[in-house]
Design brief:
The structure is a homotetramer of 337-residue chains. Chain A is an alpha/beta fold and 337 residues long. Chain A has 2 domains: 62 residues, Alpha-Beta Plaits; 250 residues, Aldolase class I (TIM Barrel). In chain A, the strands form 3 sheets. An 8-stranded parallel sheet of chain A has the order 13-12-11-10-9-8-7-14. Chain A has a 4-stranded antiparallel sheet with strand order 2-3-1-4. A two-stranded antiparallel ribbon of chain A has the order 5-6. Chain A is elongated, with a radius of gyration of 23 Å. In chain A, 58% of the residues are buried. The mean pLDDT of chain A is 93. Chains C and D meet through helix 2, helix 6 and helix 7 of C and helix 2, helix 6 and helix 7 of D.
Chain lengths: 337, 337, 337, 337
């Protein structure tokens, strides 16, 4: 913590501020600049509320110098985290290809789409059984019935499963069927859920809330890591802007910035930011070009009849063509699917 | 739903679009303008995904004309909702005064502050026992021990209790002690929790997530209302802006705008947007001047020692003076505490 | 400037970083913490691009400790700036009341409204002759003809004039008629205009761009101040949010925050943020309650026929009632109109 | 315009609303839905302020159905605009490569960098002579001396010139030296400048303000188009988010969305959003993958000594490698440099 003192401060005031800092167990260093005197504090805890110092008379500003996240930081772990699951790995130069429907709807649908995923070289099948919907009147998912279906389809085509869990009470149930837990954007700061999944013994993909800063996102990852789960995957899915509350801005610049902050892999989900299937294509290509560790894409064989988010789903045919492009772009930057 | 057709559309295309709409069970009206032809759909369900129409060839744009929320809307219920609890009412011209510490810390603290609240004319005592903290390393609340303390203090000074509930598994426990459930900003779209509290039989105060549109906020209220709970209180606590992710912008303009959209009362929480106690004062005054149904204010007898958010807590002395101002401002606009 | 070094840095790297800093003419102080070593730089110029340090190997982060604005800062000038114009002052406990139409339309209109302003105790008449309109097809203002009319009306009722200037070439012309130059939100970072008005010899009211940080706003004020104009008034008019690009969020919390950063007065313009006249009322009341140095309000005798922004204009009758409320609220916080 | 009426409206009220609409010269169509009655207006002008209707008693909501921009719209002109300049074209499947320094600093610098641009296959040399700087204490550009230098360098290497113009008074001067006028983000809504450049007879590249909606951006393009200039190029350079006011979010999703709205080409400028040179690389690759009509990239032979924005400039060596990647990615999507 760096404490910047006001311009015309007296020695007595400095003394008071110093001893106030020492009361928190801090060691205080002083640096006299030309315009300002600055006090540096050593031994500060990551959760210290720096506003406490800002209210002390004579203090002009206070700046924290250590990131509040520890286990998630690149400083804590220099090398990239690579998560190994049965049939895939996430975080290496082998890119992850995750695809499937928004919602699991019935066995015909999920088997048909699982086949498409397997054929395209995908290794993880996505599909929601518990759906967080903005409206209470919208389809809320098939529940356990859906979990059974996606597990069967994935096993049949030798795929891994990723599916969303929305509350602590569902963790055991979902854990019986899934290989990777997905935390949706709306639950990024659902701390009881994060704590529970920190102890769940399986990888977790943590979606960024559309208004979360990168620091807040990593603090939520820190909940998972500090409760024992080392296999955390981040997923960028678009942030809210001023332009249109329904058109999310796919924040691809977060990918290179995060590389400097954390060792955790970042998957890109272009489907939710795109809103319409024709926009998914350029955004998926851009995600790979920007360095994502993989993509998660929504597909549907009959988008116009999908029970949720049909307009952003790719048909199998369009999807297959896209994957060909993604493979070529990956090659340009020394990666492969 | 209004479907705007492309400029040079053929009669055949119009026919196709019409019959596509009729397949959804819609009745179609046509209006020929000078520049465009427009189709109006009647009988549309509130959860219909209008993007489905947008992808149809020949469609230029689609606009929904009914709000997706029903029970929360001013159309559904013209008169203001007034929530009556034991010793107070929320939503009438009698403004609600809710105050107390951020976290319940020990019995001395909560009794001392309960007395301050009662003396100032407050009727609801706030205090957190389960705290949603950005950092896993921060104080997480006293849990049930805290609930017992706040209940005792409130009963002793004849106050109602409001306290936060963070997950479905806590609803019964918290319900044993509280008069009003608080849903924190981070849980505004925690749908399992909303459904559970929809059936909990006690009033719920729903804080706005810092990135929620007014429509999304009302959709979350709709979850509560549609699951049976008519006693929903909204609470504005500041939204995120581009300026500084930690300085929330107190969106007071939401208050008059919401008056046109919904019959539910809106309480203002100036403490979280203000960040520093000296900024709480002008923002609390502004909230009353802007027409809030009441305020919720954080107080602490020793802010510098508070276990959470001390810097934004008012001391009892400062708080008492503020309440005097608020009473005078309320009078100017024909209300009273 | 504070330079935070990476965790496992070598002495040789530190030496390199130090000498790099010294090449910029900086004096370097070193502080060894438990987790990190920090270097403090003394003698840094306010316009130094700290990113230069961030790219140096071994540097984890760089933090500036001095505000980039000087003349606008509270550090440079402790006491509040009070601007004295013929018939009014801005920035003291006497609040400024500025009102008038959005656009000057004809002499009957501006005389009628000037009378309303004078009668309500207002001292400054507003009205636009050059209008910055989003659409090239909208009314662009009467130009010099409008300037003549507002000057005549103001003189007749002993009022000051404030009107907008949009480009350097208009400064002389507008200066012939106005007492205060207004810089519109869109021109907040029109640097040639700021430089010219820095030398114009009359007070300038600088509106905040709807996406400007407080720091950027003060940097634009710094352009005016550093080019010789000490009479700078800030005007908060609402910022853009994610909710609705057309509903600006009236950032009243900026008022107390700015009080700590700058000595310049802040006027509030509730009309542009409100969008509809019925929302202007609560926002104007809230602005005074939040501590604004005054308000600027749009009025019109026939809002439905106004050539611009009629829907947000108050009728004289509504306006007069509002001013009565504002006077009472001002009293509560020790101010007066 | 679609006017949605309140639920329990009387026939008399409907009659009043209709005749109010007819007073604006509108033709009114009525559609009776199950829940609401809707009135459609035909013959409305693009600059009609729909708020006027919203205030009429009995009106629940008003929705405009025509875009406020005309000449910029895809409806007005179906085929893509391709701008042909001496040695290049912008908007076709031949991508535009624009590069050069942030500021023109001296003749050695600009000649050296012009050579790099020419060698990499670039056709347009960028460089600022008039610089809009946030701080009045920062380098403001060489002025006309800079214009002369960039013209000489461009001619020597057979390149076109693009450079920024900041005010109407500079248009003639800058026009003597440049092939393309650049309007900076801060001046996107500087209407006098837009009007002047609408008549300037040379192509204009209009950067998006970091808080402009797509509609507002196109409205500014409409100023240029409606004043006679058909050669308008859009340039996406990153928008402001809540995360960090200095890290702009490169809104690549705007590219496919704009393709549906307008016939104008969109160039991507990854340098300003990236902030650091190492982030420019992934963002430039992503821009091409997302379908941009070209890129504009900042380069410098000695970034650490650059007079402005050095940290985001690429060295010639890094730049050359990047261009190789961009060429390969362009091929994947059927384009070429």
């Amino acid at each position: 913590m760096i404490v910047i003192l006001e311009k015309n401060i007296t020695e007595e005031q400095i003394e008071n501020i110093s001893s106030y800092m020492k009361d928190f167990g801090l060691e205080v260093h002083r640096m006299d600049g030309k315009e300002r005197i600055v006090l540096g504090a050593i031994g500060i805890q990551p959760n210290f509320d720096i506003r406490k110092m800002k209210s002390v008379p004579g203090v002009a500003d206070v700046i924290k110098i250590l990131d509040p996240f520890k286990l998630a930081s690149r400083t804590f772990k220099q090398e990239d985290t690579v998560i190994k699951i049965n049939r895939t790995e996430i975080g290496s130069t082998n890119l992850a290809l995750i695809a499937g429907p928004c919602s699991i709807e019935n066995d015909e649908q999920i088997f048909k789409l699982a086949e498409v995923v397997a054929d395209s070289g995908g290794t993880v099948l996505r599909g929601g059984a518990f759906k967080p919907r903005t409206s209470p009147y919208s389809f809320q998912g098939l529940g356990e019935e859906g979990l059974k279906l996606i597990r069967q389809a994935a096993d049949h085509f030798k795929l891994n499963v990723i599916t969303e869990v929305m509350q602590t009470e569902q963790v055991d149930l979902v854990g019986k069927y899934t290989d990777i837990f997905q935390i949706g954007a709306r639950n990024m700061q659902n701390y009881p859920l994060l704590k529970e999944l920190g102890k769940a013994g399986k990888p977790v993909m943590l979606k960024r809330h559309w208004s979360a800063t990168l620091e807040e996102w990593l603090m939520s990852a820190e909940y998972l890591l500090s409760h024992g789960n080392k296999d955390v995957i981040l997923c960028e899915r678009g942030i809210r802007s001023f332009d249109n509350p329904n058109r999310f801005i796919f924040d691809l610049s977060s990918i290179p910035v995060l590389k400097g902050m954390t060792h955790l892999p970042v998957i890109a989900d272009p489907s939710h930011a795109a809103l319409y299937s024709e926009h998914v294509l350029p955004m998926a290509r851009a995600a790979i070009a920007a360095g994502a560790a993989g993509v998660m894409i929504e597909i549907h064989d009959q988008p116009e009849k999908a029970l949720s988010d049909g307009p952003q789903a790719l048909t199998p045919k369009v999807y297959i063509n896209l994957i060909e492009d993604l493979k070529k772009i990956a090659e340009v930057i020394g990666k492969k699917f």
